[in-house]
Amino acid sequence: MLRINLTRCIIAASALAAAAGAASAQTYQTNIPVSFQVGATNMAPGDYRVAVSNSSGATVVELLNLQTHQSGMVMAGIKADRPKTWPIEGRPALTLACDGGACALKALWDGSESFVYRFSAPKLVKDETPGAALRLPLRKGD
């Protein structure tokens, strides 16, 4: 498991480095009021810069805590249809999947596309209560 996560982090870092030179990038800001996971990285609540980079067909998302400067990176998995309840043109948002008090990055929407980026989330707590989704608005960044 550790080897797989390390490999994913190396691939994500390589993709982000390549993306920095010659790719489209979108930057957002948001406040995340709960602790959460990005891939295998535990993140603290706070204000975040969210950078979405596309290079060679790979989409990498980096979340940087503006207070602690801790960051987490993850490659987007499959694209999924935007939920029908979300407006066609709307405010960009990210979604955390929460279960038993633990949350993990689950999806990101840029506010205009017909799809959302989905992320692999670790298995959270197994219990009887169904998990909740926390949808957080994103503001366009610098």
Task: Give a structural overview.
This protein has 142 residues and is mainly beta. The chain has one domain (2-140). Helix content is 15%, strand content 48%. It contains one helix and twelve strands, in the order αββββββββββββ. The chain has one helix at 2-22, and strands at 24-32, 36-38, 41-43, 46-55, 58-65, 71-75, 79-81, 93-99, 102-109, 115-118, 132-137, 139-140. The strands form three sheets. The protein has a five-stranded antiparallel β-sheet, with helices on one face. Strand 4 (46-55) and strand 5 (58-65) form a beta hairpin. The longest helix has 21 residues, at 2-22. 26% of the residues are buried.
Short description:
This protein has 1 helix and 12 strands. The chain is mainly β.
Average pLDDT confidence is: 78
Main sheet properties: 5 strands, antiparallel
List the quaternary state of the chains.
single chain
Q: Low-confidence parts lasting 5 or more residues at pLDDT below 50?
A: 15-22
**Whole-number total of structural domains:** 1
Cα distance, first to last residue? 36 Å
Question: Key features?
Answer:
single chain, five-stranded antiparallel β-sheet, 1 helix, 142 residues, mainly beta
